[in-house]
Amino acid sequence: MLTLSSDQKKIYQEATALWGVEFLRGMIHEEYGEYLVAENHYFNRNRCTEDDLVEEVADVMVTMFQLALLLGETEVLEVMQRKIVRLGERVAQANPQWKEG
User: Fold this and answer.
1) d(Cα 39, Cα 37) in Å, to the nearest integer?
2) What does the alpha-carbon distance between residue 53 and residue 74 come to, in Å, rounded to a whole number?
3) Cα 17 to Cα 96: distance, rounded to the nearest angstrom
4) 95 lies in a domain?
5) Residue 35 is part of which domain span?
6) Which of 1, 13, 37, 75 has the smallest number of Cβ neighbours within 10 A?
7) CA distance linking residue 41 with residue 70, whole number of Å
8) Residue 97 main-chain phi, psi, to 5 deg
9) Angstrom distance (rounded) from CA 71 to CA 79
10) pLDDT in tens, 2-34
11) How far apart are CA 99 and CA 39, in angstroms?
């Protein structure tokens, strides 16, 4: 699971303190929009590179980590873990030969 260093957390917290939650919300919308365009261009139109898509995924993840810190990092990680377990159960059900771990 991805984790944040204390330096990364400080940067995210300072960015939120400087620019506020409304700015973060705007960035989330902007970055998701750019991701959606890049994802469509990469998979459906062959109009961007894998590096372009990786760049947009990273931008979305940066904004999501910042939001997770605002909402409560522990709570978000707990919910993520439950969802990953559920995904593993679904994979095992769809592919009985697959084994976790």
Assistant:
1) 6
2) 28
3) 48
4) no
5) 9-71
6) 1
7) 32
8) -75, -15
9) 12
10) 788 999 999 999 999 999 999 999 999 999 999
11) 30
